[in-house]
Structures are given as structure tokens and as C-alpha cells.
């Protein structure tokens, strides 16, 4: 019982992680790039 439930939970988590990562990795990377680039450019421009 316990082992089979662990397998089921792991399978569901893997399936959900694959779907979430596919949809979230690209937007997160874009957001991080834009957020990190804007402050850097602003700091360079101010200095």
C-alpha cells in the first residue's frame, strides 16, 4: 500500500512538474533577464 502510493504520487508529481516546467521556464527566464538587465543598464547610465 505505502510503496504503491509513493509510486503514484511520484508519477503525478513528475507529470505535473513536466507540464509546469514547460510552461513556466520560458516566462521565468525572460522575466529574470529583463529584471536583471534593466537595473544594470540604469546603474551604468547613472554612473
Name its key features:
96% helix; 47 residues; mainly alpha
Task: Give a brief rundown of this model.
The protein has 47 residues and is mostly helical.
Outline the fold blueprint:
Blueprint: H1 2-46
Plain-language structure description:
- The chain is mainly alpha-helical and 47 residues long.
- It is 96% helix and 0% strand.
- The N and C termini lie far apart (64 Å).
- The mean pLDDT is 64.
User: What is the strand tally?
Assistant: 0
Shape: rod-shaped
Q: Helix count?
A: 1
Mean pLDDT across residues: 64
The largest sheet, given as strand count, sense and whether it forms a barrel, is: none
Q: How much helical structure, as a percent, in the residues?
A: over 70%
Regions with little confidence, pLDDT below 50 for 5+ residues: none
Q: Which range does the strand content fall in?
A: under 5%
Rg, rounded, reads 20 Å
- Series of secondary-structure elements, N-terminal to C-terminal: H
Given helix and strand content, the structural type is: mainly alpha
Distance between the termini: 64 Å
Amino acid at each position: 500500500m505505502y510503496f504503491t502510493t509513493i509510486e503514484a504520487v511520484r508519477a503525478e508529481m513528475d507529470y505535473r512538474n513536466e507540464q509546469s516546467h514547460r510552461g513556466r521556464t520560458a516566462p521565468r527566464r525572460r522575466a529574470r533577464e529583463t529584471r536583471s538587465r534593466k537595473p544594470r543598464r540604469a546603474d551604468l547610465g547613472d554612473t
